[in-house]
Amino acid sequence: MPTPTLSIILPVLNEAAGIASVLAPLQALRPAGVELIVVDGGSTDYTAHLATPLSDRPVSAPRGRASQMNAGAAMARADRLLFLHADTRLPAGAIPAIHAALDTHLWGRFDVRIEGTHPMLSVIATMMNWRSRLTGIATGDQAIFVTRKAFKQVGGFVDQPLMEDIAFSRNMKALGRPACLRQRVTTAGRRWEAHGVFRTMVLMWRLRAAYALGADPVDLARRYGYAPRQS
Question: Which CDD domains does this entry report, sorted A to Z (predicted)?
């Protein structure tokens, strides 16, 4: 079997209702040298069963995006890695754009578009993209990609329940600035709309500020509404 040129690592948890629709658009990439690794974090539904025939390497790992993405990276065969959230879709031409970016950078991310009906979602996405471009900090919703060598050099993702993408970006910035691609991935705005766009925006600002001041990611995760796994 030829060595893939890119490994897509997708952490999932209880996504049975939509996992087939998530993986379907990625199937055309597999014959073109893209490896698809789905990392299940202990789903209690049929996520893993449904994902198996639609991926190259189904993997299990302790729950948590950092833990799951690190496990997927450890299994990946390609020298270039793309970390993709289950509710994020790639734009057309994403794979050639990633390869071109990694020819000159060690890592990078896409601009993002938040899908939804609230008019503020487009404003929030624009703010996220500009903030990322100015600071060199990427979020997981922006589909982070990286060379395997650089990923190993920084030790992968810090295994924490929240802000693992921020910690990773900080570590990667020590090696070099990210490639900031203007092509937009599309991520679901379900949480924003379900919990209130302005309320969620203020909450995220507060959590990021608290993290910057040294707050415990476990406490921040609970404030976000996520129950961290027990060690």
Answer: GT_2_like_a
